[in-house]
């Protein structure tokens, strides 16, 4: 059995709660989360010690200890990506396959540094939104897409990844400019490609389902409502990554997503003006 170590900002969160059972099942019992580290105890949540006792996972007192006792590593902190670089520093020097949860990085510079650190130490590493693996996207014809209008829930800084990731996977990385078109409570971002194609990201609150309207440059359009088990497919891909050491998402796509999210937060300050990506 291969041992997986969790490294998190605090452990009592949804991803840490769900991933252990899903990974064990997807791997046929060949992989198991056996140890974990949490940086802080969060008020209103179980302490890291309480969470580990509940889950039957050993709580270790340092990231180094988790790295040493694990075959594979998962850096979580899904809603606090500003801690990813710090939490991932030792894992990315370990040479052990490391998955970093969404959102990968709060800015392009830290994303580049993490990739460079992993490359310098021969550490297989990748990050993704689970929405990338929705069957509705994977079954979609990609050639000829002219425009996308995407919808979903959440705040821009933590949930726009779930729309931007599929857009980049479907339309590519050649983004030229961005424009903020939303309000304070309903963030919206227009993504402009070098060849004139466009994609719109819209976050309409917690009750908004993930949806996407895709146009092929004529009267042909396709409306998608994401209802498939994308987390199940994501976990299967994660298990495959651990086994193979081959990242499932290209570095170019992950860096493009980081650049878009960073620039999108800057564009909010100057709405209805194009911001050119450098």
From TrEMBL:
Gene Ontology molecular function: nucleotide binding
Protein name: Gfo/Idh/MocA-like oxidoreductase N-terminal domain-containing protein
SUPFAM superfamilies assigned to the protein according to its UniProt record, in alphabetical order: NAD(P)-binding Rossmann-fold domains
Organism, as annotated: Paenibacillus ferrarius
Domain Gfo/Idh/MocA-like oxidoreductase N-terminal, chain residue ranges per copy: 47-123
Domain of life: Bacteria
């Amino acid at each position: 059995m291969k041992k997986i170590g969790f490294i998190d900002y605090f452990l009592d969160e949804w991803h840490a709660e769900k991933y252990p059972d899903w990974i064990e099942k997807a791997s046929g019992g060949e992989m198991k989360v056996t140890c974990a580290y949490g940086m802080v105890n969060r008020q209103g949540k179980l302490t890291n010690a309480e969470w580990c006792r509940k889950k039957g996972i050993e709580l270790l007192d340092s990231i180094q200890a988790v790295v040493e006792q694990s075959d594979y590593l998962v850096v979580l902190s899904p809603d606090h990506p500003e801690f990813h670089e710090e939490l991932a520093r030792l894992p990315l020097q370990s040479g052990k396959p490391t998955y970093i949860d969404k959102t990968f990085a709060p800015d392009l510079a830290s994303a580049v540094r993490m990739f460079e650190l992993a490359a310098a130490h021969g550490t297989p590493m990748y990050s993704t939104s689970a929405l990338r693996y929705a069957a509705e996207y994977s079954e979609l014809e990609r050639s000829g897409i002219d425009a996308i209008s995407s919808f979903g829930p959440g705040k821009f800084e933590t949930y726009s990844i779930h729309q931007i990731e599929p857009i980049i996977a479907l339309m590519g990385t050649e983004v030229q400019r961005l424009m903020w078109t939303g309000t304070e409570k309903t963030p919206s971002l227009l993504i402009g490609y070098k060849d004139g194609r466009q994609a719109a990201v819209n976050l309409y609150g917690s009750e908004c389902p993930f949806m996407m309207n895709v146009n092929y440059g004529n009267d042909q359009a396709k409306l998608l409502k994401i209802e498939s088990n994308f987390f199940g497919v994501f976990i299967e891909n994660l298990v495959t990554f651990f086994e193979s050491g081959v990242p499932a998402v290209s570095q170019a796509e992950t860096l493009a997503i980081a650049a878009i999210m960073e620039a999108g937060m800057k564009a909010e300050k100057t709405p209805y003006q194009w911001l050119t990506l450098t």
